[in-house]
Protein backbone atom coordinates (compact mmCIF):
# COMPACT_ATOMS: atom_id res chain seq x y z
CA UNK A 1 0.00 0.00 0.00
CA UNK A 2 1.13 3.47 -0.78
CA UNK A 3 2.20 5.24 2.36
CA UNK A 4 2.63 8.69 0.86
CA UNK A 5 -0.98 9.18 -0.11
CA UNK A 6 -2.73 12.13 1.46
CA UNK A 7 -6.28 12.47 2.53
CA UNK A 8 -8.55 14.02 0.00
CA UNK A 9 -11.99 15.38 0.28
CA UNK A 10 -14.78 12.90 0.50
CA UNK A 11 -16.02 13.01 -3.01
CA UNK A 12 -19.06 11.94 -4.91
CA UNK A 13 -20.41 9.44 -7.35
CA UNK A 14 -20.08 9.13 -11.06
CA UNK A 15 -20.71 5.78 -12.63
CA UNK A 16 -21.09 7.14 -16.09
CA UNK A 17 -21.35 4.71 -18.94
CA UNK A 18 -20.09 5.30 -22.43
CA UNK A 19 -21.73 8.02 -24.51
CA UNK A 20 -22.72 9.94 -21.43
CA UNK A 21 -25.26 7.44 -20.20
CA UNK A 22 -25.29 7.63 -16.46
CA UNK A 23 -26.07 4.81 -14.13
CA UNK A 24 -27.36 5.61 -10.76
CA UNK A 25 -26.25 4.34 -7.42
CA UNK A 26 -28.42 4.34 -4.40
CA UNK A 27 -25.83 3.46 -1.79
CA UNK A 28 -24.14 6.57 -0.49
CA UNK A 29 -20.39 6.60 0.08
CA UNK A 30 -19.37 5.45 3.53
CA UNK A 31 -17.11 8.50 3.64
CA UNK A 32 -19.73 11.11 3.03
CA UNK A 33 -18.22 13.47 5.56
CA UNK A 34 -14.76 14.75 6.34
CA UNK A 35 -11.59 13.93 4.49
CA UNK A 36 -10.50 10.43 3.61
CA UNK A 37 -8.12 8.70 1.27
CA UNK A 38 -9.15 6.06 -1.20
CA UNK A 39 -7.79 2.61 -0.53
CA UNK A 40 -7.21 0.61 -3.66
CA UNK A 41 -8.58 -2.91 -3.91
CA UNK A 42 -6.91 -5.88 -5.59
CA UNK A 43 -8.48 -7.29 -8.74
CA UNK A 44 -8.46 -10.98 -9.61
CA UNK A 45 -8.91 -12.10 -13.21
CA UNK A 46 -9.26 -15.85 -13.70
CA UNK A 47 -9.45 -17.61 -17.02
CA UNK A 48 -11.41 -14.73 -18.50
CA UNK A 49 -12.78 -15.20 -21.99
CA UNK A 50 -15.13 -13.09 -24.10
CA UNK A 51 -16.54 -14.23 -27.39
CA UNK A 52 -18.57 -12.18 -29.83
CA UNK A 53 -20.02 -14.76 -32.19
CA UNK A 54 -16.99 -16.44 -33.68
CA UNK A 55 -14.57 -13.66 -32.61
CA UNK A 56 -12.62 -14.35 -29.43
CA UNK A 57 -11.94 -10.84 -28.16
CA UNK A 58 -10.37 -11.96 -24.87
CA UNK A 59 -8.96 -15.44 -24.47
CA UNK A 60 -8.33 -17.16 -21.13
CA UNK A 61 -6.70 -14.28 -19.27
CA UNK A 62 -5.27 -14.75 -15.79
CA UNK A 63 -3.97 -11.73 -13.91
CA UNK A 64 -3.72 -10.47 -10.34
CA UNK A 65 -3.68 -6.70 -10.01
CA UNK A 66 -2.43 -5.52 -6.66
CA UNK A 67 -4.19 -3.00 -4.44
CA UNK A 68 -2.93 0.49 -5.25
CA UNK A 69 -1.11 -0.69 -8.35
CA UNK A 70 -0.99 1.23 -11.63
CA UNK A 71 -1.30 -1.44 -14.30
CA UNK A 72 -1.41 -0.65 -18.00
CA UNK A 73 -2.90 -2.82 -20.71
CA UNK A 74 -0.76 -2.22 -23.76
CA UNK A 75 -1.36 -3.75 -27.14
CA UNK A 76 -2.17 -3.09 -30.78
CA UNK A 77 -5.62 -2.27 -32.08
CA UNK A 78 -8.05 -5.16 -31.73
CA UNK A 79 -5.98 -6.99 -29.10
CA UNK A 80 -8.84 -7.00 -26.57
CA UNK A 81 -7.90 -4.13 -24.25
CA UNK A 82 -11.26 -2.38 -24.24
CA UNK A 83 -13.13 -5.67 -24.00
CA UNK A 84 -11.17 -6.61 -20.88
CA UNK A 85 -11.82 -3.20 -19.34
CA UNK A 86 -15.53 -3.40 -20.16
CA UNK A 87 -15.75 -6.72 -18.34
CA UNK A 88 -14.00 -5.20 -15.31
CA UNK A 89 -16.46 -2.32 -15.38
CA UNK A 90 -19.44 -4.62 -15.87
CA UNK A 91 -20.61 -3.23 -19.21
CA UNK A 92 -19.86 -6.62 -20.77
CA UNK A 93 -20.16 -10.02 -19.14
CA UNK A 94 -17.54 -12.70 -19.77
CA UNK A 95 -18.34 -15.83 -21.75
CA UNK A 96 -16.16 -17.73 -19.28
CA UNK A 97 -14.06 -17.04 -16.23
CA UNK A 98 -14.24 -15.12 -12.99
CA UNK A 99 -13.56 -11.60 -11.73
CA UNK A 100 -13.00 -10.56 -8.14
CA UNK A 101 -12.67 -7.17 -6.50
CA UNK A 102 -11.18 -7.52 -3.03
CA UNK A 103 -13.04 -10.46 -1.52
CA UNK A 104 -16.10 -10.06 -3.76
CA UNK A 105 -16.98 -12.02 -6.86
CA UNK A 106 -18.06 -9.35 -9.35
CA UNK A 107 -18.22 -11.52 -12.47
CA UNK A 108 -21.91 -10.89 -13.09
CA UNK A 109 -22.47 -7.91 -10.81
CA UNK A 110 -24.17 -4.86 -12.34
CA UNK A 111 -21.76 -1.98 -13.11
CA UNK A 112 -23.39 0.38 -10.64
CA UNK A 113 -22.81 -2.08 -7.80
CA UNK A 114 -19.10 -2.51 -8.42
CA UNK A 115 -17.80 0.75 -6.98
CA UNK A 116 -15.45 1.21 -9.93
CA UNK A 117 -14.76 4.57 -11.59
CA UNK A 118 -14.29 4.79 -15.32
CA UNK A 119 -12.87 7.36 -17.71
CA UNK A 120 -13.39 6.89 -21.42
CA UNK A 121 -11.43 7.99 -24.44
CA UNK A 122 -13.90 10.74 -25.21
CA UNK A 123 -14.80 12.86 -22.31
CA UNK A 124 -18.48 11.96 -22.10
CA UNK A 125 -19.32 15.06 -20.09
CA UNK A 126 -22.91 16.24 -20.30
CA UNK A 127 -22.65 19.12 -22.78
CA UNK A 128 -25.73 20.93 -21.48
CA UNK A 129 -24.51 20.98 -17.86
CA UNK A 130 -21.86 23.16 -16.26
CA UNK A 131 -18.71 21.57 -14.92
CA UNK A 132 -20.15 21.83 -11.41
CA UNK A 133 -23.38 20.16 -12.46
CA UNK A 134 -21.49 17.42 -14.26
CA UNK A 135 -19.61 16.55 -11.10
CA UNK A 136 -22.63 17.03 -8.87
CA UNK A 137 -24.88 14.85 -11.02
CA UNK A 138 -23.67 11.51 -9.71
CA UNK A 139 -23.87 12.81 -6.14
CA UNK A 140 -27.50 13.55 -6.74
CA UNK A 141 -27.97 10.11 -8.23
CA UNK A 142 -26.59 8.65 -5.04
CA UNK A 143 -28.84 10.80 -2.96
CA UNK A 144 -25.99 12.44 -1.14
CA UNK A 145 -27.49 15.09 1.16
CA UNK A 146 -27.90 18.34 -0.77
CA UNK A 147 -25.97 20.42 1.76
CA UNK A 148 -22.87 18.35 1.22
CA UNK A 149 -22.78 18.58 -2.55
CA UNK A 150 -21.28 22.05 -3.21
CA UNK A 151 -18.39 21.39 -0.89
CA UNK A 152 -17.63 18.01 -2.35
CA UNK A 153 -17.77 19.32 -5.89
CA UNK A 154 -15.33 22.09 -5.00
CA UNK A 155 -12.92 19.63 -3.49
CA UNK A 156 -13.17 17.41 -6.54
CA UNK A 157 -12.38 20.41 -8.75
CA UNK A 158 -9.42 21.32 -6.58
CA UNK A 159 -8.15 17.76 -6.84
CA UNK A 160 -7.79 18.12 -10.61
CA UNK A 161 -6.64 21.74 -10.32
CA UNK A 162 -9.74 23.27 -11.83
CA UNK A 163 -10.97 25.41 -8.95
CA UNK A 164 -12.77 28.38 -10.41
CA UNK A 165 -13.95 26.51 -13.51
CA UNK A 166 -17.17 25.19 -11.98
CA UNK A 167 -19.50 27.56 -13.85
CA UNK A 168 -18.12 26.87 -17.30
CA UNK A 169 -19.79 24.69 -19.87
CA UNK A 170 -17.70 21.74 -21.15
CA UNK A 171 -17.45 23.45 -24.55
CA UNK A 172 -15.62 26.34 -22.86
CA UNK A 173 -12.81 24.06 -21.68
CA UNK A 174 -9.75 22.72 -23.47
CA UNK A 175 -9.55 19.00 -24.18
CA UNK A 176 -7.21 18.46 -21.26
CA UNK A 177 -9.46 20.39 -18.89
CA UNK A 178 -12.47 18.38 -20.01
CA UNK A 179 -10.59 15.18 -19.41
CA UNK A 180 -9.66 16.37 -15.92
CA UNK A 181 -13.33 16.98 -15.20
CA UNK A 182 -14.00 13.41 -16.35
CA UNK A 183 -11.30 12.18 -13.96
CA UNK A 184 -12.79 14.21 -11.10
CA UNK A 185 -16.20 12.77 -11.85
CA UNK A 186 -14.86 9.21 -11.88
CA UNK A 187 -12.98 9.66 -8.60
CA UNK A 188 -15.57 11.73 -6.81
CA UNK A 189 -17.19 8.71 -5.19
CA UNK A 190 -13.88 7.35 -3.95
CA UNK A 191 -13.87 4.12 -5.90
CA UNK A 192 -11.04 1.77 -4.92
CA UNK A 193 -10.54 1.06 -8.62
CA UNK A 194 -10.30 3.46 -11.53
CA UNK A 195 -10.43 2.19 -15.11
CA UNK A 196 -9.20 4.41 -17.92
CA UNK A 197 -9.51 3.59 -21.60
CA UNK A 198 -7.08 5.68 -23.65
CA UNK A 199 -8.09 8.78 -21.69
CA UNK A 200 -5.45 11.02 -23.27
CA UNK A 201 -5.49 9.92 -26.88
CA UNK A 202 -7.49 12.94 -28.04
CA UNK A 203 -5.00 15.42 -26.57
CA UNK A 204 -1.93 16.94 -28.15
CA UNK A 205 1.47 15.69 -27.09
CA UNK A 206 2.29 18.42 -24.61
CA UNK A 207 -1.05 18.20 -22.84
CA UNK A 208 -0.84 14.41 -22.87
CA UNK A 209 2.53 14.44 -21.14
CA UNK A 210 1.30 16.88 -18.51
CA UNK A 211 -1.82 14.83 -17.87
CA UNK A 212 0.23 11.64 -17.60
CA UNK A 213 2.12 13.17 -14.71
CA UNK A 214 -1.02 14.56 -13.10
CA UNK A 215 -2.91 11.26 -13.30
CA UNK A 216 0.05 9.34 -11.93
CA UNK A 217 0.47 11.77 -9.03
CA UNK A 218 -3.22 11.65 -8.26
CA UNK A 219 -3.18 7.86 -8.26
CA UNK A 220 -0.21 7.77 -5.90
CA UNK A 221 -1.75 10.34 -3.60
CA UNK A 222 -5.07 8.55 -3.39
CA UNK A 223 -3.77 4.98 -3.36
CA UNK A 224 -6.37 3.94 -5.92
CA UNK A 225 -5.86 0.86 -8.10
CA UNK A 226 -5.69 1.95 -11.74
CA UNK A 227 -6.11 -0.16 -14.85
CA UNK A 228 -5.07 2.01 -17.76
CA UNK A 229 -5.53 1.12 -21.42
CA UNK A 230 -3.20 2.56 -24.00
CA UNK A 231 -1.60 1.59 -27.26
CA UNK A 232 1.14 4.16 -26.69
CA UNK A 233 4.11 2.31 -25.26
CA UNK A 234 5.90 5.40 -24.07
CA UNK A 235 2.83 6.33 -22.05
CA UNK A 236 2.65 2.84 -20.55
CA UNK A 237 6.37 2.82 -19.76
CA UNK A 238 6.21 6.21 -18.04
CA UNK A 239 3.12 5.70 -15.91
CA UNK A 240 2.89 2.06 -14.91
CA UNK A 241 4.06 -0.07 -12.04
CA UNK A 242 3.52 -3.04 -14.35
CA UNK A 243 2.45 -3.44 -17.94
CA UNK A 244 0.41 -6.30 -19.39
CA UNK A 245 1.18 -6.63 -23.09
CA UNK A 246 -1.87 -7.88 -24.97
CA UNK A 247 -1.94 -9.53 -28.37
CA UNK A 248 -4.72 -11.58 -29.96
CA UNK A 249 -6.91 -11.43 -26.86
CA UNK A 250 -4.18 -12.92 -24.65
CA UNK A 251 -1.73 -11.44 -22.19
CA UNK A 252 1.63 -12.08 -23.76
CA UNK A 253 3.68 -10.93 -20.79
CA UNK A 254 3.24 -8.95 -17.58
CA UNK A 255 6.13 -7.09 -16.06
CA UNK A 256 7.85 -3.84 -15.29
CA UNK A 257 9.02 -1.68 -18.17
CA UNK A 258 12.56 -2.94 -17.52
CA UNK A 259 11.55 -6.61 -17.58
CA UNK A 260 9.59 -6.27 -20.81
CA UNK A 261 12.43 -4.44 -22.51
CA UNK A 262 15.32 -6.54 -21.19
CA UNK A 263 13.67 -9.95 -21.03
CA UNK A 264 10.85 -10.17 -23.56
CA UNK A 265 9.14 -13.55 -23.26
CA UNK A 266 7.89 -13.83 -26.83
CA UNK A 267 8.82 -12.44 -30.25
CA UNK A 268 5.55 -10.47 -30.12
CA UNK A 269 6.64 -8.62 -26.96
CA UNK A 270 10.19 -8.23 -28.25
CA UNK A 271 8.86 -6.60 -31.38
CA UNK A 272 6.15 -4.53 -29.74
CA UNK A 273 8.21 -2.95 -26.94
CA UNK A 274 10.95 -0.78 -28.38
CA UNK A 275 12.72 -1.63 -31.59
CA UNK A 276 14.11 -5.11 -32.19
CA UNK A 277 16.13 -6.80 -34.93
CA UNK A 278 15.39 -10.44 -35.77
CA UNK A 279 18.29 -12.24 -37.41
CA UNK A 280 17.87 -15.79 -38.70
CA UNK A 281 20.40 -18.38 -37.58
CA UNK A 282 20.92 -22.13 -37.41
CA UNK A 283 21.71 -24.08 -34.28
CA UNK A 284 25.00 -25.93 -34.81
CA UNK A 285 25.98 -27.16 -31.34
CA UNK A 286 24.51 -27.48 -27.89
CA UNK A 287 26.82 -27.37 -24.91
CA UNK A 288 26.21 -27.39 -21.16
CA UNK A 289 26.38 -23.63 -20.85
CA UNK A 290 26.04 -22.30 -24.37
CA UNK A 291 24.18 -22.90 -27.55
CA UNK A 292 26.21 -22.18 -30.68
CA UNK A 293 24.45 -20.76 -33.70
CA UNK A 294 25.63 -19.91 -37.16
CA UNK A 295 24.61 -16.67 -38.75
CA UNK A 296 25.20 -16.10 -42.46
CA UNK A 297 28.78 -15.99 -43.67
CA UNK A 298 29.52 -18.77 -41.18
CA UNK A 299 29.82 -16.45 -38.24
CA UNK A 300 29.48 -18.57 -35.09
CA UNK A 301 28.03 -17.13 -31.93
CA UNK A 302 27.91 -18.76 -28.49
CA UNK A 303 24.83 -17.79 -26.56
CA UNK A 304 24.25 -18.53 -22.86
CA UNK A 305 21.41 -21.05 -22.54
CA UNK A 306 19.30 -18.83 -20.27
CA UNK A 307 18.89 -16.42 -23.16
CA UNK A 308 17.20 -19.09 -25.26
CA UNK A 309 13.47 -18.33 -25.07
CA UNK A 310 11.94 -21.35 -26.72
CA UNK A 311 9.38 -23.67 -25.16
CA UNK A 312 11.20 -26.87 -26.09
CA UNK A 313 15.02 -27.08 -26.07
CA UNK A 314 16.53 -26.43 -29.49
CA UNK A 315 18.21 -29.23 -31.44
CA UNK A 316 21.13 -29.04 -33.83
CA UNK A 317 19.82 -27.93 -37.22
CA UNK A 318 16.91 -25.88 -35.81
CA UNK A 319 16.25 -22.45 -37.21
CA UNK A 320 16.46 -19.83 -34.47
CA UNK A 321 15.83 -16.09 -34.57
CA UNK A 322 18.35 -13.93 -32.78
CA UNK A 323 16.64 -10.85 -31.41
CA UNK A 324 18.79 -7.87 -30.52
CA UNK A 325 18.13 -4.18 -29.86
CA UNK A 326 19.63 -1.67 -32.33
CA UNK A 327 21.76 -0.13 -29.59
CA UNK A 328 23.40 -3.49 -28.83
CA UNK A 329 24.73 -4.04 -32.34
CA UNK A 330 28.23 -2.80 -33.10
CA UNK A 331 29.25 -1.43 -36.49
CA UNK A 332 32.71 -0.91 -37.97
CA UNK A 333 34.24 -0.31 -41.36
CA UNK A 334 35.20 -3.70 -42.80
CA UNK A 335 38.92 -4.20 -42.42
CA UNK A 336 40.28 -5.30 -45.78
CA UNK A 337 40.05 -9.04 -46.25
CA UNK A 338 39.21 -9.59 -42.61
CA UNK A 339 35.59 -9.76 -41.62
CA UNK A 340 35.42 -9.75 -37.85
CA UNK A 341 31.69 -10.08 -37.43
CA UNK A 342 28.89 -10.42 -39.90
CA UNK A 343 29.45 -8.54 -43.13
CA UNK A 344 26.90 -6.19 -44.62
CA UNK A 345 26.37 -3.06 -46.67
CA UNK A 346 25.09 0.24 -45.30
CA UNK A 347 21.85 1.07 -47.09
CA UNK A 348 20.98 4.21 -45.21
CA UNK A 349 22.17 6.27 -42.34
CA UNK A 350 20.77 9.16 -40.38
CA UNK A 351 22.26 11.52 -37.87
CA UNK A 352 19.90 12.05 -34.94
CA UNK A 353 21.94 14.23 -32.59
CA UNK A 354 23.15 12.04 -29.77
CA UNK A 355 23.29 8.96 -31.97
CA UNK A 356 23.38 7.69 -35.54
CA UNK A 357 21.07 5.23 -37.18
CA UNK A 358 22.31 2.75 -39.74
CA UNK A 359 20.35 0.33 -41.86
CA UNK A 360 22.61 -2.52 -42.93
CA UNK A 361 21.70 -5.30 -45.34
CA UNK A 362 23.38 -8.66 -44.81
CA UNK A 363 24.31 -11.03 -47.63
CA UNK A 364 21.12 -13.08 -47.17
CA UNK A 365 18.95 -9.96 -47.40
CA UNK A 366 18.31 -9.57 -43.65
CA UNK A 367 18.02 -5.93 -42.68
CA UNK A 368 19.64 -4.85 -39.40
CA UNK A 369 18.95 -1.54 -37.67
CA UNK A 370 21.82 -0.16 -35.66
CA UNK A 371 21.92 2.75 -33.27
CA UNK A 372 25.38 3.90 -32.29
CA UNK A 373 26.53 6.76 -30.13
CA UNK A 374 27.64 9.71 -32.19
CA UNK A 375 31.03 9.68 -30.46
CA UNK A 376 31.59 5.96 -31.12
CA UNK A 377 35.04 5.61 -32.66
CA UNK A 378 34.32 2.36 -34.53
CA UNK A 379 31.39 3.85 -36.34
CA UNK A 380 33.32 6.93 -37.43
CA UNK A 381 33.06 8.07 -41.05
CA UNK A 382 30.87 5.22 -42.21
CA UNK A 383 29.06 6.21 -45.38
CA UNK A 384 26.17 4.80 -47.34
CA UNK A 385 26.97 1.81 -49.59
CA UNK A 386 30.06 1.08 -47.50
CA UNK A 387 30.90 -2.52 -46.52
CA UNK A 388 30.83 -2.94 -42.74
CA UNK A 389 31.27 -5.57 -40.07
CA UNK A 390 28.57 -5.80 -37.50
CA UNK A 391 28.90 -7.49 -34.15
CA UNK A 392 26.31 -8.63 -31.64
CA UNK A 393 26.79 -8.32 -27.92
CA UNK A 394 26.19 -11.97 -26.90
CA UNK A 395 24.67 -10.96 -23.55
CA UNK A 396 22.08 -8.84 -25.37
CA UNK A 397 20.77 -11.60 -27.64
CA UNK A 398 17.38 -13.18 -27.08
CA UNK A 399 16.79 -16.35 -28.99
CA UNK A 400 13.37 -17.38 -30.27
CA UNK A 401 12.29 -20.18 -32.51
CA UNK A 402 12.59 -19.06 -36.12
CA UNK A 403 9.69 -19.02 -38.47
N1 LIG B 1 -19.39 -5.65 -29.57
C1 LIG B 1 -18.59 -6.36 -30.35
N2 LIG B 1 -19.07 -7.24 -31.24
C2 LIG B 1 -18.25 -7.99 -32.00
N3 LIG B 1 -16.91 -7.93 -31.97
C3 LIG B 1 -16.36 -7.10 -31.08
C4 LIG B 1 -17.15 -6.25 -30.23
N4 LIG B 1 -16.32 -5.50 -29.48
C5 LIG B 1 -15.07 -5.85 -29.84
N5 LIG B 1 -15.09 -6.79 -30.80
C6 LIG B 1 -13.91 -7.43 -31.42
O1 LIG B 1 -13.08 -7.91 -30.38
C7 LIG B 1 -11.71 -7.68 -30.67
C8 LIG B 1 -11.08 -6.87 -29.56
O2 LIG B 1 -11.63 -5.56 -29.58
P1 LIG B 1 -11.25 -4.44 -28.53
O3 LIG B 1 -12.15 -3.28 -28.75
O4 LIG B 1 -11.25 -5.04 -27.17
O5 LIG B 1 -9.76 -4.09 -28.95
P2 LIG B 1 -8.79 -2.95 -28.41
O6 LIG B 1 -7.53 -3.65 -27.98
O7 LIG B 1 -9.47 -2.11 -27.43
O8 LIG B 1 -8.46 -2.14 -29.76
P3 LIG B 1 -8.24 -0.53 -29.96
O9 LIG B 1 -6.80 -0.26 -29.59
O10 LIG B 1 -8.47 -0.38 -31.43
O11 LIG B 1 -9.22 0.21 -29.13
C9 LIG B 1 -11.68 -7.03 -32.04
O12 LIG B 1 -11.45 -8.02 -33.00
C10 LIG B 1 -13.06 -6.43 -32.19
O13 LIG B 1 -13.43 -6.37 -33.54
MG1 LIG C 1 -10.05 -0.07 -27.36
Describe this protein's structure.
With 403 residues, the chain is of the alpha+beta class. It folds into 2 domains: 8-268, 3-Layer(aba) Sandwich (Rossmann fold); 276-401, Nucleic acid-binding proteins (OB fold (Dihydrolipoamide Acetyltransferase, E2P), Beta Barrel). Helices cover 20% and strands 34% of the residues. The protein has 8 helices and 24 strands. It has helices spanning 81-89, 131-141, 149-159, 175-187, 205-222, 233-239, 257-262, 267-272; strands at residues 8-9, 15-16, 22-23, 35-36, 43-52, 55-65, 70-74, 96-101, 104-105, 116-119, 193-197, 225-230, 242-247, 250-255, 277-286, 290-295, 299-304, 319-324, 329-333, 342-352, 355-362, 367-373, 387-392, 398-401. The strands form 6 sheets. The chain has a 6-stranded mixed β-sheet with strand order 10-11-12-7-13-14, sandwiched between helices. A hairpin with a 3-residue loop joins strand 16 (290-295) and strand 17. Helix 2 packs across helix 3 (149-159). The protein is elongated. Residues 52, 55, 57, 75, 77-83, 231 line the site of adenosine-5'-triphosphate.
